[in-house]
Automatic annotation (TrEMBL):
Signal peptide: none annotated. Keywords: Hydrolase. One of its GO terms (molecular function) is hydrolase activity. This is PaaI family thioesterase. Its EC number is 3.1.2.-. Residues 78-155 form the Thioesterase domain. It comes from the Bacteria. InterPro entries: HotDog_dom_sf (IPR029069), PAAI_dom (IPR003736), Thioestr_dom (IPR006683). The lineage of its organism: Bacteria, Pseudomonadati, Bacteroidota, Cytophagia, Cytophagales. Transmembrane segments: none annotated.
């Protein structure tokens, strides 16, 4: 319902063909693929455009994403929806694992555990989701991540277990 005194809010965005990433990603190490995304050689995940999040930094076993909370991230009670927390954490966790994988190895999340510490709002400013590899084996890898603001204040933390497999 739109109150007559409130302007309508709209948002338009675009994304690149995700088949490009699927095709090229299977031929590169995880590190080379992630660095290629940062350099603009390969398309970012469409979800990154949907949520307006970016990869800030990549090193072996550690990846940092950023997001500036916006009103379009909100739940009905005026704070960032928990699903946005989960998505940026899952991205940082998975990419921390991906950064260590050789060419031809894929992964998928088997388990995601998130602890919400405090809400994010449009007044929070830029936050970072920092994912770090804990363990990578033959078929399973684990990682941990946290969301912090630019002063280091903690908003959420998470762990994941991912299954590793030969990429299609």
């Amino acid at each position: 319902m739109n109150d007559i005194n409130q302007p309508e809010r709209t948002r338009t965005y675009s994304w690149e063909d995700q088949a490009i990433g699927v095709k090229v990603g299977s031929t590169l190490s995880g590190m080379d693929y992630l660095r290629g995304i940062i350099a603009g050689k390969y398309p970012a995940a469409a979800i990154a455009n949907t949520l307006d999040m970016q990869i800030e930094a990549v090193e072996e076993g550690k990846v940092t994403f950023s997001i500036v909370p916006q009103e379009f991230h909100y739940n009905p009670i005026g704070s960032v929806h928990g699903g946005v927390f989960c998505t940026i954490l899952d991205s940082a966790l998975g990419c921390a694992i991906h950064s260590t994988l050789p060419a031809g190895t894929g992964y998928t999340t088997l388990e995601l555990k998130v602890n919400f510490i405090r809400p994010l709002t449009i007044t929070t400013g830029k936050v970072l989701a920092i994912g770090t590899l804990i363990h990578s084996g033959r078929s399973v890898a684990t990682a941990e991540a946290k969301i912090v603001d630019e002063q280091g204040k903690l908003y959420a933390h998470a762990t994941t277990t991912c299954m590793l497999f030969p990429w299609r």
